[in-house]
Specification:
alpha+beta; 29% strand; 3 helices
Length: 145
């Protein structure tokens, strides 16, 4: 029994081809981002931010600025996101982390698409993992960065 328990626990931490510590979007150039789309369950668009005359605007609100400049989140945060660890690669477990396909009506996360002339960088943001991090997953998308 003890040998079986040791074997099972050692299998949980098998070496995988995961880039722990690497940037999530290593080729992302923030200056090239022209649009940010946020969607939730059933692929329902929540908000679209667009660059208009060198300023971010909310497309659904007649291109009004999204927030006062001091309270806007830093765009550089996208460039600094790093992989901490892999929790699962099994799609059956995605719903527990709220990183399932955003097209599902009961999807718990939100998908953020950073669009530029060179492609789309996408991320599904799921549940908070406790502390200062969330579970995230890159969706499989044609043309994704």
């Amino acid at each position: 029994m003890i040998a079986a328990a040791i074997w099972v626990s050692s299998q949980r931490h098998l070496s995988r081809d995961v880039d722990i510590g690497n940037k999530l979007f290593p080729d992302l150039k923030l200056g090239e981002i022209r649009e940010i789309d946020v969607t939730r369950g059933s692929a329902k668009r929540v908000v679209t931010l667009e660059i208009r005359e060198d300023a971010w605007t909310v497309a659904e609100r007649e291109h009004y600025p999204p927030m006062p400049p001091r309270s806007r989140p830093s765009r550089s945060a996208w460039r600094t996101l790093r992989i901490v660890e892999e929790k699962t690669s099994d799609p059956k477990n995605y719903a527990a982390l709220a990183v399932e396909d955003i097209a599902e009506p009961a999807a718990g996360g939100a998908q953020v698409d950073l669009k530029s002339a060179t492609g789309i960088a996408s991320l599904i943001i799921g549940r908070n993992s406790g502390g200062h991090a969330n579970f995230v997953r890159k969706p499989a998308m044609p043309g994704a960065c």
